[in-house]
Design a protein that fits this description.
By secondary structure, the protein is mainly alpha-helical. It has a domain of 48 residues. 22% of the residues lie in helices and 0% in strands. It is built from one helix and no strands. The longest helix is centred in the N-terminal third of the chain and has 16 residues. The chain is extended and about 55 Å long. It starts with a helix and ends in a 55-residue tail after the last helix.
Amino acid sequence: MLTYEQARQKVIEQVSKKRGPRAKVGISVWDALGYVLAQDVKSDRAYPPFDRSTRDGYAVRVAEAKPGAKLRNV
């Protein structure tokens, strides 16, 4: 099994073989729909400024997901 970094590198290699480097353009954020970032964007504070989840959703074991079951949220 590949590690995350190995898999990521393989994807990058395959994509760059097919398309090569993309052109860089400077545009307004309001016109940026459909574009990808050419470099990281840094922020001076956390957004939003409250606790939040980086991923939404729940995982449930099918054996525990029966009608009327009480599931523990961890």
